Amino acid sequence: MVNGQSWGQSFLEIAKEKNLDLEDLEEKARQGGFAVFNTKGYTNVAIAAATVSLMNLVLSDAKSIAICSHYDEKFKSYISTPALIGKEGVEALVKLPLTFEEEVKLKQSVCEIQEKIDYFS
């Protein structure tokens, strides 16, 4: 989960007001990617669409925020987070106000991804 904001209200506040089960939402988000992959065998359309979107932002020097993969010095690995995209590519990273629990989960995710990269390298 990301401790983001919508219309000035934190996502965690909205989730609490709406009685959303954050663990259930997290699991559904995690399984969504697997469902697409297991059904289609690949996710190339989504990857192609994201690539076209990012290239349009670069070519137009949009100075717009988009989610993209980039090397993160803190984790010594590639992760996907919001970034300012312009003619130089990733021009600035958007710092997410993560809770301690979210920071721990992000670190666990990065470690799992790195293990898979190492395994296949």
TrEMBL record:
The keyword Oxidoreductase applies. GO terms for molecular function: L-lactate dehydrogenase (NAD+) activity; L-malate dehydrogenase (NAD+) activity. Residues 16-118 form the Lactate/malate dehydrogenase C-terminal domain. SUPFAM superfamilies: LDH C-terminal domain-like (SSF56327). It is an enzyme of class 1 (oxidoreductase). GO terms for biological process: lactate metabolic process. Keywords: Oxidoreductase. Its EC number is 1.1.1.27, 1.1.1.37. Pfam families: Ldh_1_C. PANTHER family: L-2-HYDROXYCARBOXYLATE DEHYDROGENASE (NAD(P)(+)), L-LACTATE DEHYDROGENASE. Belongs to the LDH/MDH superfamily. LDH family. This is L-2-hydroxyisocaproate dehydrogenase.
